[in-house]
TrEMBL record:
Coiled coil: none annotated. It comes from Aspergillus ruber (strain CBS 135680). Signal peptide: none annotated. InterPro entries: RNA3'_phos_cyclase_dom, RNA3'_phos_cyclase_dom_sf, RNA3'_term_phos_cyc, RNA3'P_cycl/enolpyr_Trfase_a/b. SUPFAM superfamilies: EPT/RTPC-like (SSF55205). This is EPT/RTPC-like protein. PANTHER family: RNA 3' TERMINAL PHOSPHATE CYCLASE, RNA 3'-TERMINAL PHOSPHATE CYCLASE. It comes from the Eukaryota. GO terms for cellular component: nucleus. Residues 28-402 form the RNA 3'-terminal phosphate cyclase domain. One of its GO terms (biological process) is RNA processing. One of its GO terms (molecular function) is RNA-3'-phosphate cyclase activity.
Length: 450
């Protein structure tokens, strides 16, 4: 990391030096995770930031995608920051936040930049900042954020995973209330119609800081103190078209029974879950023997490729573990004259893949054996959410009183420099996005992470 000093004067405070942080956007996964976490931390700590070599190793065109630009511009707007280079395909972007978070200037109703990408990835960049800004405003009412874009997009969170997994897990960890409303879905295949989602971000608990300002209190997020527990209930969500099918389903031998694609997947996913759980005989510490399995949401879609499955396991410790699958198959599916066998296999493959990945999320025999021998444990949340908690883990000891944020930041960095970050959470469960998030936190906050 390279830094160059920038003098700035906080309100009623002596002049302090603020680091200009330079981030290599091609590090680790070299994509959106690096960009979103870096600009969010820059906005929270008032450190000017430049990200270079953005997506330099990715195949095809390099630089910022439209979803990255939407996240950067949305955060710049709510934080009153200056941005240079936030254009599609740009390889370098500079983000210059103001000297402090001005809670009074944050709009209580905010409509973000429309993105053809996932609205939930944009929200990931906004959420940590809005938690603090809403608290510093002194208003107990939530900030309402309306975003337009994709709600069911490949390699991104969906409305269903956010509402059924992300928000309940935050609640278990002690976060303030977060509500979400879905007004319209948008998929990355089929007819183009912008999705619309509204979030209601409630403020953090607060107190009066040593300088008379407002002190934000993030919940203590030591995931080493949390265990996953065992699965006590499984919910299944199916979004699929109601096209009639004629092929034989797993629950009937009567070829004349008329089922839709949606009903076929409801029946097939639950049957496959029960079969795999019975066949694999997972340890009783992982899942109850006769765990109840049911349909949480079943929704008809209007286009033949709009198929989505989410499986959510409720744990005895209050967390939720999930895997989901979005259809990526042949666009001729259920439209052109394909054989019943072909159509059946395409639909069944989506459900079976989701079940297979969910079972692996619950129990990976090879990793569990290593973890047990070495005194480590599986993360309390699933792979899809673990990386999203990193920024809060590193910020939870830091508060931002009004007018003294940079002084606190410098003290925080010095005090944390040699802090032990060793954990008995098994890092072999961590994905590349998790490693990217930890690296960015280390670069911006100046912490050495194990």
């Amino acid at each position: 990391m390279n830094t160059e000093p920038l003098n700035a004067e906080a309100s009623c405070k002596p002049i302090v030096k603020s680091r200009h942080i330079y981030i290599n956007g091609n590090t680790h996964e070299g994509g959106g995770q690096v960009i979103r976490n870096a600009v969010t931390l820059a906005a929270l700590t008032s450190h000017p930031l430049t990200i270079h070599s953005i997506r330099a190793s990715r195949p095809g065109r390099k630089g910022l995608r439209d979803a990255h630009v939407a996240a950067i511009k949305s955060l710049a707007e709510v934080s009153n920051s200056i941005v240079e280079g936030a254009e599609i395909w740009s390889m370098r972007v500079t983000f210059i936040p103001p000297d402090k978070i001005d809670g009074a200037a944050v709009k209580k109703v905010y409509s973000g930049h429309t993105t053809p990408g996932s609205v939930f990835l944009t929200f990931q960049a906004l959420y940590p900042y809005l938690l603090h800004a809403g608290t510093l405003s002194g208003d107990k009412e939530p900030i309402c954020v309306e975003l337009q874009g994709g709600t069911n997009i490949h390699y991104s969170p969906t409305f269903d995973s956010i509402s059924q997994v992300f928000i309940p897990n935050l609640e278990t960890l002690g976060f303030p209330k977060l509500d979400i409303e879905l007004h319209e879905r948008n998929w990355n295949t089929g007819t183009i119609k912008l999705g619309s989602v509204r979030f209601f971000v409630y403020p953090l608990p607060s107190s009066t800081g040593p300088n008379g300002g407002i002190k934000c209190h993030l919940p203590k997020i030591n995931l080493d103190q949390h265990r996953r527990g065992k699965i006590t209930k499984i919910d299944v969500t199916i979004l699929a078209p109601d096209n009639d099918i004629s092929w034989e389903t797993r629950g009937t031998t009567d070829k004349e029974d008329k089922f839709t694609v949606r009903k076929f997947l409801e029946q097939g996913v639950i049957a496959e879950l029960r079969n795999r759980l019975h066949r694999l005989s997972l340890p009783s510490c992982v899942i109850d023997q006769d765990v109840p399995i049911g349909i949480h949401t079943s929704e008809s879609t209007q286009y033949h490729t709009h198929i989505y499955i989410l499986i959510v396991g409720h744990t005895s410790t209050g967390f939720r573990i999930s895997r989901d699958e979005l259809f990526e198959g042949d666009l001729n599916y259920l439209v052109n004259a394909c054989s019943d066998v072909y159509n059946c296999l395409l639909a069944q493959a989506v459900g079976d893949a989701c079940v297979r990945q969910f079972i692996r999320e619950l129990y990976d025999r090879n990793l569990e054996e290593f973890s047990r021998r070495e005194g480590r444990h599986q993360p309390c949340v699933g792979r899809a959410m673990r990386d999203q908690l990193v920024i809060f883990e590193e910020l939870e000891e830091l508060y931002f009183p009004q007018g003294s944020r940079k002084e606190d930041m410098s003290e925080y960095g010095r005090g944390q420099e040699n802090k032990e970050k060793n954990t008995i959470e098994d890092d072999r469960y961590w994905c590349l996005h998790m490693k990217s998030a930890r690296w960015v936190c280390g670069e911006v906050l100046g912490i050495k992470l194990a």
